[in-house]
Every structure is written in C-alpha cells, then in structure tokens.
Amino acid sequence: MTATQTLIELEDVTFGYTASSVLTDISLDVESGEYVGIIGPNGSGKSTLMQLMLGLHTPDSGTVRLFGQSPRAFVERERVGYVAQDVTENTKEMPITVFEVVLMGRFPHAGFGRLTEADRDHAREALRTVGIEHLADRRITKLSGGQRQRAYIARALAGEADLLVLDEPTVGVDAESVEAFFDLLDGLNDDGMTVLLVEHDIGAVLEHADRVVCLNRQLYFDGPPERFVETDALDKAYGTNIRRGEEVTLA
C-alpha cells in the first residue's frame, strides 16, 4: 500500500464477558504503516481489545471496522497476519515442517486450491526475510519459542498480509532472541508493514513502537512514546509508581 489507509477503527466500544465491562468507551484508529504498541496491566483488556479488532468478539456497544468493514463480514483474512499469544504452545504437537507452516499462508491465493511453484517461492522468500530459511525442513515442533514466532510471521508475509497483529509475542521466547525479534519487527515496519503489538514489556514498546496505547479497561493514553513518558498515564493505568521508561515485564 502506498497511500495511507485506515485499517482498524473503533468508536465508543464497550465490551464485557459478564455484567462487568472489560473495556469501556474505547475509540482509536490504526493507520497503514504504523507501529502501535498496546500496554496495560494484567486483566486490563489488551488481548480482548485485539480480539474485538479482529472480529473474534462482538462489542456490546460501539462500532468496530476492519479495513472499512465489520470484522465479522471481512473475508480477505489473508490481509491480516495474526500471531496469537499461545501459538508456541499450540504448535508443539503439529507434525509438519516449518516450510509447510509458511506455505499455508499461500492457500488464500491458490487458484482452484492448487499451490504453484510461485507460491513456494513466496514461502521461501518469507523464510529468508525472517531469517530462518535454514530451518525450512525442520519440524515446527523442534523449534524454540522465538523461532516458532518467526515461522508464523513468515506465514503472514507469505500470504502478503497488510497488517501484522501480535499478542504477547515474546511470551515463551528466550531472552537472547527477544532483541533480535524486535529488530525483525522494526525492519518489517520500515518496509511498510503495519504492526499492532500487545506487549507486557513496557520498555520494549517505548523503544520500538512509534505509537503507544495504554489502557486498563479504559483508554489512558494514545500517542507517541516520547509524550507518553511525560504523562501520568502509566501510574493511572497500573496503579503503581513504576518509573517511566523503565523496562518492566508486567503481563
């Protein structure tokens, strides 16, 4: 995409699993090319917000639009690369190779359900982009948490996704791989990929994202990291005196 496009729109969204609201009156937009980091304490509604954006839940009130459509009616799912929080756990028993996982991203583009050599080339290029082409023939079950995350990002790239959505991507990833993982996201965003990230590591979000969304059931801040650290949004959302800009690992 060359022109800026609104990929996600939320207007006055409220949602609850029971009588108590999990999210209240949330309004925000995500534009193409942005790198948005969503932070908040445990139980603040971060993952629920992401699931509302993707149509996995329906708001009790308010409006959600994904690429200008109701998420439930949105059919071009290949435009969204979603890496769920528990993906590294859910793939532990999958008896398929890394290349086969990535090739799944090409299925929406396959004519008459048949994959071509061009589709395989897309998969190979995606593996090269995320730096795991040497693992193509390895079973997905044999990868580390960080390597599996890269495989699923590669699947999104192979599918030519416009939006990469990641829910707590560093959970289960060894510490040595975390910095390289964020460098990968930086590079993808520099190349035009829109990145929407739910992350427990506040320091990583402040360092890498160009926009911070801070919430705890309601929205406390939405703007650039440099402005976020000058506000009291962190204290209000977390209810603690966390030092602004300090790397913490609150879930």
From TrEMBL:
EC identifiers of the protein: 7.6.2.8
Keyword terms: ATP-binding, Nucleotide-binding, Transport
Species whose genome carries this gene: Halovenus aranensis
Chemical reaction(s) catalysed: an R-cob(III)alamin(out) + ATP + H2O = an R-cob(III)alamin(in) + ADP + phosphate + H(+)
Role according to the record: Required for corrinoid utilization. Probably part of the ABC transporter complex BtuCDF involved in cobalamin (vitamin B12) import. Probably responsible for energy coupling to the transport system.
Record-given protein name: Cobalamin import ATP-binding protein BtuD
Domain of life per record: Archaea
GO molecular function: ABC-type vitamin B12 transporter activity; ATP binding; ATP hydrolysis activity
InterPro entries associated with the record: AAA+_ATPase, ABC_transporter-like_ATP-bd, Metal_Ion_Import_ABC, P-loop_NTPase
Record's keyword annotation contains rRNA-binding: no
Domain annotation ABC transporter: ranges: 8-241
Pfam families: ABC_tran
UniProt xrefs under SMART domains: AAA (SM00382)
Family: Belongs to the ABC transporter superfamily.
PROSITE patterns given in the database record: ABC_TRANSPORTER_2
Assembly behavior: The complex is composed of two ATP-binding proteins (BtuD), two transmembrane proteins (BtuC) and a solute-binding protein (BtuF).
Entry keyword Ubl conjugation: no
